[in-house]
C-alpha cells in the first residue's frame, strides 16, 4: 500500500498545509495510508484530531520521512537530508528561481514534482493549477487588506448627513490575482479600474465590469499567456504614463509578474508622492530585490512622508490559510490521481504534464529549463 | 464674528477629528472664523495644509482655547481647565456614563453640548445623529475585520479544483452598526443571519435579506427604539439558546447595547468553546467591564484554547478615521446651523433638540437625567 506523508512547513511564517483533513479523507477512501506530521495543519486551524478523525496517523516528522512514499509540502522543506532516495516530493518548489535547490533535490535521490512548472494552458492541468488557486486567494485578500487600511469607505454611502463617494481603486495586472482583487473590491462597492499590457487580459478586465486604464504603451503578450518583459524604452513610457494616472486613485493594488524574471517596476516614488495622504498601495509582487512599487518591503507596512501607506504583500495566500490550504490540497489530489492511477506511484515521463512538472528523478535534474539554468551558471563560474 | 476652534483629540489612540477641511470650508463660506489646532487632523490623514487651504488658521492648542467661541471635539478634552467660562464645547461627551465629567464641564463655565444625548427619533435631528454615523462606520469595519481575520473565504468560490461554501456569519443586534455589518458581510458574499430582541429590528433584519435567528425568548422593546434590559430569567434563556446557535457559525459579530447600562452578555465561554477552530468573534460592545462576549478585551485580539479568535473592538469608527471624521463633521455642522442660525451663538433652551443635548450652562449641570444621576450618587455617598 502506498503511504502519503504531510509535512509541517519549515518556514515559520508559512501558515498553509499541503493537505486538509477533508483532502486526507479522500485519499483514505482510495486505501492510501496518510501520515501527518504533528501540528502540520495547526497554523491553518486544522488540528491533529481532525486528521486523526479522517483516518490519518499523526506522527513525528522523522517518521513522516521514514515511512512515506510520497511527501507533500508547499515550500521546499529545510531538511532535505532526512529524505530517502526514491521518495516523491510534491510542492511549489520554485526551481526556476532557485536552480541550486533542484541539484539538492537530485542529490537526495528525490523524485521532485513542482506544481509551479505546470503547463497552465492545458485544460487537463487546470485542476492541479496551484499557482492559480493561490493567486486567487491572494487577490481576494489584497482587496480586503486595502479596504482595511484605507481610511474611508469603499462603497458609496448615503446617510441623513450626506453622501460619500466610493473609493477609486486601480488594479495593475489582470492575471488571476488581479481579477480576483477587482472582483472583491467591486463586491465591496469600490469603483475599480484595471490595467494590463496584454490584449487578452484587457478583454478579461472589461468582462469584470471594471474600467480599463489605457496608456500609450505597446501590447506585450508572451508564451503561455504571460506578459513579456518590456524594452527599456517601453518600460520608461509605461512608468511615465502610470505616474500621471496613479494619483487619481485612492487605492492601487499591483500584481504584475514576469515568469523567471524580476517583477516590473510600475509605481515609482514620484507616482506615490502624487497620491493623496491616506491612499493605500498594495504590492503583491514585493520581493527583497524589489517589486511593482518602489520602496515596498515584503511583509511590511510603511508610510511615505506624503502619507501614503505601502504594503509589501509577498505571500498573502498564507494569510487566508484555510481557503488556501483547501484549494492547494485539491490541486495536489488531482496530481496524485494522475501520479498514482491505481494507488501505486507510476511516474510516466512520457505524459505531457508529468514530464513538465518533474524537476529531479533517479539522482539527476531532469527538467530541461532547470538544467539549462544550471549549465548557464556553471559556464559563468568556470 | 464667531470663531470655531477644532481641537486635537487628547486620547492618543483616537484617530478622528471633529471637522474636516471640507467641513471647515463650509463654515468659512458663512464668514465663521475657524481655528484648527496644529496636527488635529493628521491621524485621519487631513494635513494642516489642507485646513489652511480651506481658509482656516492653524494655531497651537492654547490659542484655540483662548480665541474660540465654540470648541469642537469628539471625546472630552483632557485639559478642561484651559477653557474659558462661556465657551461652547460640542462633542460626544458621554455624560450619562460619566456624570462627574458633567460637573467639571459646569465648573469650567462651559456650555457643553453632547451629541450622544440627541433625541434620535426626531426627523429634524437625523442630520446631527453622530451616534448613528459612527455606528455605521463601526459596523462596516467590523465586517472587514472579520473577513480579514477569518481563515477562509467569505464568498462562495467556484474554481477548476472545486467549490468552497460561503462563510456563515451571525450578527447580534440589529441597530445601525449591526445592519451595516450585515450589509457589508453580504456584499462580500457571506451567508448572514441576524438576531435582535426587538420586533421592529427583526423587520429591519429581514429587509436586508439576512436570515433571522429565532430563539424562544420574549420581545424586549424600550423607549426611543432601544432594547430594554432583560429579566434574569429571560437573559438566562437567551444565553442558553445562543449557546446552541453560535457553534453553527464561522463568524459572529456582536453589537448589542443597552443605553446607560452595561452591554448584555450574549456569547458565553461555553458558546465559544463549541465553535470550530478558526472561527472569529468580534465584540463591538467590548468594555473593560465586559461586553457581549465573555472574555473579550477592548482593542485586543485573543485566541481561545479551542482556536476561536475573539476581537474586542471598542472604537472601530476611529480605525476608519477619514469616513468617520467626515460623517461626524457633517453632524456637527448640522448642529451648528441650529446653534448659530445667523452666525452668532444663540442657545435657545426652549428648542426640543438644544435642550436635550445641553449638559451644562451658566455654571450648572442643566440636563435633567445627568442631574438625577448626580443627585443619586450624592445620596449614596452622604
From TrEMBL, chains A, B:
InterPro entries (alphabetical): Ala_DH/PNT_CS2, AlaDH/PNT_N, AlaDH/PNT_NAD(H)-bd, NAD(P)-bd_dom_sf
Domain annotation Alanine dehydrogenase/pyridine nucleotide transhydrogenase N-terminal: ranges: 5-138
Ranges in coiled-coil conformation: none
Enzyme category, top tier: translocase
Pfam families found in the cross-reference section: AlaDh_PNT_C, AlaDh_PNT_N
Keywords, comma-separated and alphabetical: NAD, NADP, Nucleotide-binding, Translocase
Catalysed reactions, semicolon-separated: NAD(+) + NADPH + H(+)(in) = NADH + NADP(+) + H(+)(out)
Enzyme nomenclature, EC number: 7.1.1.1
Domain Alanine dehydrogenase/pyridine nucleotide transhydrogenase NAD(H)-binding span(s) in chain numbering: 147-312
Annotated SMART domains: AlaDh_PNT_C, AlaDh_PNT_N
Family to which the UniProt record says this protein belongs: Belongs to the AlaDH/PNT family.
Role, per record: The transhydrogenation between NADH and NADP is coupled to respiration and ATP hydrolysis and functions as a proton pump across the membrane.
Name of protein: proton-translocating NAD(P)(+) transhydrogenase
Organism in which the protein naturally occurs: Paractinoplanes globisporus
Amino acid at each position: 500500500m502506498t503511504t502519503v506523508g504531510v509535512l509541517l512547513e519549515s518556514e515559520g511564517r508559512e501558515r498553509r498545509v499541503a493537505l486538509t483533513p477533508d483532502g486526507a479523507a479522500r485519499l483514505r477512501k482510495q486505501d492510501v495510508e496518510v501520515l501527518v506530521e504533528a501540528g502540520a495543519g495547526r497554523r491553518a486551524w486544522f488540528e491533529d484530531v481532525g486528521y486523526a478523525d479522517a483516518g490519518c496517523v499523526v506522527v513525528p516528522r522523522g517518521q513522516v520521512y521514514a515511512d512515506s512514499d510520497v511527501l507533500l509540502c508547499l515550500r521546499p522543506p529545510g531538511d532535505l537530508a532526512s529524505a530517502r532516495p526514491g521518495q516523491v516530493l510534491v510542492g511549489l518548489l520554485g526551481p526556476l528561481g532557485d536552480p541550486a535547490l533542484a541539484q539538492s533535490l537530485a542529490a537526495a535521490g528525490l523524485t521532485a514534482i513542482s506544481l509551479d512548472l505546470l503547463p497552465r494552458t492545458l485544460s487537463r492541468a487546470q485542476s492541479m493549477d496551484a499557482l492559480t488557486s493561490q493567486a486567487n486567494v491572494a487577490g481576494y485578500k489584497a482587496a480586503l487588506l486595502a479596504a482595511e487600511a484605507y481610511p474611508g469607505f469603499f462603497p458609496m454611502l448615503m446617510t441623513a448627513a450626506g453622501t460619500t463617494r466610493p473609493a477609486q481603486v486601480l488594479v495593475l495586472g489582470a492575471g488571476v490575482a488581479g481579477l480576483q482583487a477587482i472582483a472583491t473590491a467591486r463586491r465591496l462597492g469600490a469603483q475599480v479600474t484595471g490595467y494590463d499590457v496584454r490584449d487578452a487580459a484587457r478583454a478579461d478586465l472589461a468582462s469584470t465590469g471594471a474600467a480599463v486604464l489605457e496608456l500609450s504603451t505597446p501590447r506585450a503578450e508572451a508564451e503561455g499567456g504571460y506578459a513579456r518583459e518590456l524594452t527599456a524604452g517601453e518600460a520608461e513610457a509605461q512608468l511615465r504614463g502610470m505616474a500621471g494616472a496613479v494619483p487619481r486613485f485612492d487605492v492601487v493594488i499591483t500584481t504584475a509578474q514576469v515568469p523567471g524574471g524580476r517583477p516590473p517596476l510600475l509605481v515609482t516614488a514620484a507616482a506615490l508622492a502624487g497620491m493623496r495622504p491616506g491612499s493605500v498601495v498594495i504590492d503583491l509582487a514585493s520581493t527583497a530585490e524589489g517589486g511593482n512599487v518602489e520602496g515596498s518591503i515584503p511583509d511590511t507596512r510603511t508610510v511615505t512622508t506624503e502619507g501614503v501607506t505601502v504594503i509589501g504583500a509577498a505571500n498573502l495566500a498564507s494569510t487566508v490559510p484555510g481557503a488556501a490550504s483547501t484549494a492547494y490540497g485539491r490541486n495536489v489530489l488531482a496530481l496524485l490521481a494522475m501520479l498514482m492511477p491505481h494507488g501505486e506511484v507510476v511516474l510516466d515521463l512520457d505524459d505531457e504534464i508529468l514530464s513538465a512538472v518533474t524537476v529531479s528523478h533517479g539522482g539527476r535534474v531532469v527538467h530541461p529549463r532547470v538544467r539549462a539554468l544550471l549549465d548557464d551558471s556553471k559556464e559563468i563560474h568556470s
